[in-house]
Known about the structure:
Helices cover 49% and strands 12% of the residues. The protein folds into 2 domains: 9-221, TIM Barrel, CATH 3.20.20.210; 238-322, no CATH class. The chain is α/β, with parallel strands linked by helices. It contains 13 helices and 9 strands. The structure holds coproporphyrinogen I. The site of coproporphyrinogen I has 22 residues, from strand 3.
Amino acid sequence: MRQAGRYLPEYRQLRSSSNGFLDMCLTPHKACEITLQPIKRFPDIDAAILFADILIIPYALGLNLEFIEKTGPVLSPVDLKSPPDFSPDSFLEKTQPIMETLKKVKSHLKGQTLIGFAGAPWTVAAYMLQGQGGKDMAAAKAKAYENPQGMATLLDTLTTATISYLLAQIKAGAEMIQLFESWAGVLPEPYFDKWCVDPTLKIIKEIKEKFPTIPIFIFPRGASQYYKKYFENDIKPDGISLDTNMAIDQALKDIPRDVILQGGMDPQLLKAGGTPMLIEAERILTKTKDRKYIFNLGHGMTPDIPIENVEKLIQFIKGWRP
Ligand code: 1CP
């Protein structure tokens, strides 16, 4: 999940002295420092996630990307009649700063796992089609449904780009990969199968061929019962990040026992803090106690989360015993 960010004063300070969000992502010494900020402040955290964004892939495919204060990321919208091409040389050149960041971070870590990531193709395509986020990605879906051929081409391009990007991240030091399918929850079943599951499994297959021991996690936000579809073949993710609304009892039944579970805690409870936060952490830890489980949130950290609550939660988890 998003781990760095505006809830940390040290992040806000670096951000105010930078030339925008993209500059921070593409300047390795800054991105390295931001990646390390949460684990410096909370030394009991077990993993650091690369500081970058899922929209680095569209940027590296040549789209214009800006992060606008209070609006968020904005891209020049893609027309499915002329989707962008993947040209390996310029893609690798544009993503090279991300690889420098990973190398730098790795040299500073003391035993924590370094997590690399990418957006899954459908989620990244949705931002590319719509040009920005939104409540339900309706504009992106309208474009995609109208031109299935163009959409298939765009998803193929993104799948190829994502494989190349993640292989480079692993070579640069990433020890675990997370694929963010943050907009899994807006598609009907046949489109979920074709646009979420198929490209994701293709990415996993290609990475496993070269790096069989690197764990690959998926975060299919809002996928409801369709999350089962990722686990019906030999090629499957090593782990799944649960979103805030997932019914844990059901997930425990549906997801094969060899798959690692992660996450689930509502970030808003981290904002609220106090007893409600600890009761929910206790509930999740108790329910998952007989499974391979990694404590994490059900979505990213928000700027309004008090640091004391994070400290209290980490202390509670580290002291927890079944
Ligand atoms: O340490 C870390 O924070 C990890 C780096 C990270 C990751 C994993 C960032 C930095 N973004 C992401 C993933 C990401 N980015 C996702 C998938 C996870 C999720 O669902 O949250 C998505 C959908 C994005 C796109 C994005 N980038 C948004 C959402 C826009 C929308 O309206 O849909 C936003 C606000 C960003 C900016 C961003 N990316 C990362 C941070 C710390 C921020 C906030 C920047 C700031 O305010 O300073």
